[in-house]
Design brief:
The longest helix is centred in the middle third of the chain and has 36 residues. The protein is elongated, with a radius of gyration of 23 Å. Helix 3 crosses helix 7. The protein contains twelve helices and no strands. It has a domain of about 200 residues: Orthogonal Bundle (MetI-like fold), CATH 1.10.3720.10. The two termini are about 30 Å apart. The chain is an all-alpha fold.
């Protein structure tokens, strides 16, 4: 009964249920990629793996001048270096999803702390915080990232830190608005009358009001962050070249326009991921805000 009630509330339509199931299957397959990609000793299907080539293995028979067509050994072909595209696609999805999830969680934490400071502090602190957010959100992120990458060789840490530093501003404004509404609730006013500390009021009485926004916005933020990481990696400002990623496949596809198997899988994958995250976000928004949520017709 509880499982049926969960599916009825959280996934009222078939498209929502299918998106949740497909996303869970993708997460499981990507998390256990070593068991079915180029690892016969860990294979789930006997002694043979579905993809016999790893993301870093080079097939010497498919070297340049041009990437070869898809074959029985390489279902989606290989890149210019002779590496299997399907294996790099799966590992790139796992890496991009993990990094996007970490960036989203860090952005939510920073936005929550600053929103609480702005909502609970004196009015002059709130005013200064809002002006700082307005100035910070108007800085050219791409130009700053280009300057940092040319001046400092910080690697992945610098890149991820820059992405997190510019991804919390809009979320902070939404959380602050929700906290201003919750600050005038009866439970919060009663906690102030009882003499509770500001920290207890913030994390015990006000933080639960933010849960609907967290669960509603997280799928949308995850899809947007994954797209941003792929685009930045394609431009050359992303992950190291030795890490398999979707941006590298797009970059190689632009260099070899006669090899569409390098770009089309990534484009279809991006469309699928954005569609799944949008459907899950819509289902979560319906569960938390049943009166305000729109419906797919």
């Amino acid at each position: 009964m509880k499982t049926r009630r969960f599916w009825t509330i959280f996934c009222p339509q078939t498209c929502h249920r299918a998106s949740v199931v497909i996303t869970l299957l993708l997460v499981i397959l990507c998390a256990g990629a070593e068991a079915w990609i180029a690892a016969p000793e860990k294979a789930w299907f006997g002694t043979h793996t579905l993809i016999p080539w790893g993301p870093h293995e080079i097939d010497l028979q498919t070297l340049p001048p041009a990437p070869p067509d898809p074959t029985r050994q390489h279902w989606l072909g290989t890149d210019a270096a002779g590496r299997d595209v399907l294996a790099r696609l799966v590992y790139g999805l796992r890496l991009s999803f993990a990094l996007s999830l970490g960036i989203c969680l860090a952005s939510f934490m920073i936005a929550t702390l600053i929103a609480m400071l702005s909502a609970l502090a004196p009015p002059w602190v709130d005013l200064c915080t809002q002006r700082f957010i307005e100035l910070w959100s108007h800085l050219p992120f791409l130009y700053i990232l280009m300057g940092l990458s040319s001046l400092v060789r910080g690697g992945v840490g610098l890149f991820l830190g820059a992405v997190v530093a510019f991804s919390w501003t809009q979320l902070c404004l939404l959380l602050r608005a929700q906290l201003l509404v919750a600050r005038g609730s009866e439970a919060t006013l009663a906690a102030k009358l009882f003499g509770f500390s500001t920290g207890r009021i913030a994390f015990v009485h006000l933080l639960p009001y933010l849960y609907p926004l967290f669960f509603s916005l997280m799928p949308f933020s995850l899809g947007a962050t994954l797209s941003s990481l792929t685009a930045l990696d394609m431009l050359g400002f992303g992950l190291p070249i030795e890490w398999p990623s979707w941006g590298q496949l797009l970059q190689e596809g632009l260099s070899h326009p006669r090899a569409p198997w390098l770009t089309w899988p990534v484009l279809f994958g991006m469309i699928a991921i954005l569609t799944l995250t949008s459907l899950i976000g819509e289902a979560s928004r319906k569960a938390w805000h049943p009166r305000q949520a729109s419906e797919f017709r």
